[in-house]
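Ticket opened by: R.M.
Priority: normal
Category: complex prediction / small molecule

The reporter submitted a protein together with MGD and asked that the result be attached to this ticket for the collaborator who will pick it up next week. Submitted input follows.
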Amino acid sequence: MTTLKSTCPRDCYDSCGMLVTAEPGKRVRVIGDPEHAVARGSLCAKCGVAYNGVFQDESARLLTPLRRTGQKGSGEFEPISWDLALSEIADRLGDIASTRGEDAVLTMNYSGTMSLLASGFPNRFVNAINASEVDYGTICNRSGFVALDLLFGSATRYEGFDPRTAKDAACIVLWGANPAHSGPHAHKHWLADSPAKVLVIDPVRTRTADVADLHLRPRPGTDAALAFGLLNALRSLGAFDDKFIENHVMGADELDALIDASTPEWAEAATGVPAAAIRDAASMYSAGPAMLWCGQSLQRQPQGGNIMRAAGLLPALTGNVGKPGTGFYYVNGVAKLAGVDDDYLEGSGLRARDGKTVLALELADRLADPDEFLAFMVWNTNPLASAANLSKLRDAVSRDDLFTVSIDLFMTDTARYADIVLPAASFLEFDDMTAGYFNLSLGVQSKIVEPPGEALPNQEIFRRLAIAMGRKEPALVEADSSILDALLGQIGFDGDFEAFRERGVVYVNGDEPRIAYENLSFDTPSGRIEVASDKAVTLGLPRLPHAGVDDAPADGLLRLLSPASEWRLNDTYANDPRLARRAGEFELTLHPDDAARLEIASGDTVRVSNDCGEVTLTAEVSDCVLPGTVMSYKGRWPSRENGHGSLNELYDGRANDMGESTAVHGVEVQVTPAA
Ligand SMILES: Nc1nc2c(c(=O)[nH]1)N[C@H]1C(S)=C(S)[C@@H](COP(=O)(O)OP(=O)(O)OC[C@H]3O[C@@H](n4cnc5c(=O)[nH]c(N)nc54)[C@H](O)[C@@H]3O)O[C@H]1N2
Ligand SMILES: Nc1nc2c(c(=O)[nH]1)N[C@H]1C(S)=C(S)[C@@H](COP(=O)(O)OP(=O)(O)OC[C@H]3O[C@@H](n4cnc5c(=O)[nH]c(N)nc54)[C@H](O)[C@@H]3O)O[C@H]1N2
Ligand SMILES: [Mo]
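Result attached by the on-call engineer:
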């Protein structure tokens, strides 16, 4: 029996430490590491099931390379050898490059695994062949970065508060974040243990809201008005830090008139949150050091970029920056913060010329055009479930003249449309390193078992592909062990990979919380926090954040929210039978008032539609959503829903106000009882 420390590489706030145990003749056992500060001996309900379930189920895993035999999307394939698969891919990519140019090859990958080698190394190949790339950040969190960059500088891409500093906070605000689902250990331990009062701002009564001291429920897309209402109340309480503003903030006085006008009563009318609750929230936030967690859903609104900018004014104007127990958090870029050299890992120097960039939201339109792309290579993501404009995307990937390669652990909806499918190894099957995006942790990923069948780690697949294409650059075939040694050197770890495995996890700044922006220098053009931003103007954006809200949906339409499910990690785990049972019916939650008006009861089948598409769901009537709003969790594979599709049938890919980023929570739908 062998037990090793490892780390969960999913796109999740937690980055749990795990113990993986192999015994001859048995499945590997995967549990939470009792010594790991986040996991504390347990995995979350979904990963605990899937890692001991579908991830080790050879009947669900892809075991050999496959070549398509039926129509695209039919899921009919025949096994072929690695040699054949790689030489076919190499030939096709080579032909396309020589006849149509290298940029006719479009590559796409995202956060399906976040371990550094499996996510970073394949980009060396992408760069070396000068391929085009999908900028997938736009489907998740780009506009939040643009907004926080304007305010606090580009370091916000890497650094928000260190969760360990919560011990010094009097108040923690969770705004548009639901860690009860999206970071279950942060919810269960970090939030529960913190002495701070908890303020949750979310239109939905989530399980995170259930444990809050105060829950504000703005109508979706009205958070900027709420932010200004809070600022008005904070200023009345004397909570603005005039000295901090004078020394470290640019342009605050330009907001005076807007803050004057944004009384809590005005904000109540704009957002639906009672004025008294806004005042209470302001007193909570001003009672001592306060931390602000801006969730990724805060910016998935048509005006989501402005909302992030407005929310960021709270710490800026109250001086809740640079001291223990303060600050803001969005996404921490821990690898970068720890010293990992992205350019080395991803081989940016191997690129001789730029390819094209395709924003995630325009994927369907751009891929439909045969004059642009003739090959599509996809790994670490499942766009045929998660991307916008799904029915158009299905048509695009059905093109006969498009050569599609999918690399995954499973026969996903995306793999079904591929010409060649390659089987990837899971995190149990190769050594690697992970970096968190909430906790400032770097963890080991340990190989505990051989991959099933002929599956290979992403890195090995791309090494072999480089060789099949006759590439000579040493960086394209660098061994994992050599890269891991280099990464350990970059983060300053004192020891080799075996010593790192033994340790399991290391933290940026060691045992002490890192105080973000402690020296109060910001890498904005002025070096201060820029409330008023000339840079924004050069980007075609307003100089100042504003208090505008989205219009309420027109007659009869309802606004659809599609946040993270407790039983899925994005679309991952949809094919685990036990988790599919837990997730249950594909439900749409609607408020009792709307249900009464539409004559819909819990359990009814409803048609949810708009100009973009339609899906058939099961109604659940509950006042956990607001009137005028409906909710359904993301993460369904259309192929597994008897043709009921995914919520992304309903999102046409319209971008929001900053960074051409997702506005998926701005989707409006009609709901009717299904005949
Ligand atoms: N309606 C709606 N749509 C959304 C969202 C929403 O809120 N609402 N959220 C958006 C967001 S935030 C995101 S991030 C995207 C995510 O959407 P996706 O990127 O499609 O989601 P994942 O489930 O992370 O898909 C990862 C895939 O990677 C595979 N994988 C895992 N490990 C490995 C590996 O080691 N190698 C290889 N080759 N493959 C591996 C998994 O099996 C899985 O099929 O969805 C977006 N779509
Ligand atoms: N279990 C699980 N964990 C996950 C994921 C998953 O799919 N499942 N996905 C991972 C990924 S890729 C990401 S990006 C993160 C996302 O995780 P989070 O950052 O927590 O974001 P979401 O779950 O999309 O939404 C959080 C909350 O925002 C609320 N919200 C929606 N619209 C508004 C609004 O207009 N105003 C306010 N104030 N709130 C609003 C929603 O009701 C929801 O409760 O989670 C990661 N972790
Ligand atoms: Mo995401």
